Amino acid sequence: MNRIAKICIAGLAVLPVAGLAQSQKKTPYWASVKADEARMRTGPSTEYPIKWVYKRANLPVKVVAVHSIWRKVEDPDGDQGWMHVSLLSPARTAMVTGSSISALREAPSATARINWRVEPGVVGRISECAKGWCRFDNKGRAGYILASRIYGEEKP
After folding, report:
1. Rounded to whole angstroms, how far apart are CA atoms 47 and 45?
2. pTM of structure
């Protein structure tokens, strides 16, 4: 749980109402947390209690349901709750999973040169996912990682 930096609280907060920041997509689909601090609620309204507070921008989430300007999301731990659409970005990100360090390779091949190594919990942008590999970029440190080593790539 501490890898994704979320805090359980039982309070209420008011979020500003914003226009739809994302187009209506067919669920499930991938998104990422846009804000440095984002609240997940037990229901699709500010009237519902806060379930978690995420303290990590770019965290990948799976959107599993849509209700007006609210999105029901699932985080890397499997927890589900509702977030206001303004807190989410359509940017594709992923989080390294597992219990050991993963290699970021120069090409999508197990024999390609290793550019970088990443620990579980590292978050980066992903692109070019094909044949079990994704291009993973963490602040300019990029390479190809096995899709099985990240949360955010498998077909939602």
Report:
1. 5
2. 0.81
The CATH number assigned to the domain with range 2-91 reads 2.30.30.40
Please identify which residue in the block is written with the tokens 């109402």. 17
Listed residue (30, 140, 7) closest to 93, CA to CA: 30
Domain boundaries, the chain: 2-91, 94-151
Alpha helices in 13-137 (DSSP H): none
Give every CB contact of residue 128 below 8 A, 6+ residues apart in sequence.
108, 134, 135, 144
pLDDT tens per residue across span 50-71: 999 999 999 999 999 999 999 9
Start-to-end Cα distance in the chain: 21
CATH number 2.30.30.40 given to 94-151: yes
Asked if residues 82 and 88 have their Cβ atoms less than 8 Å apart, the reply is no
Query: Phi then psi for 2, rounded to 5 degrees?
Result: -70, -15
pLDDT mean over 28-52 = 96
The one-letter code for the residue type at 109 is: S
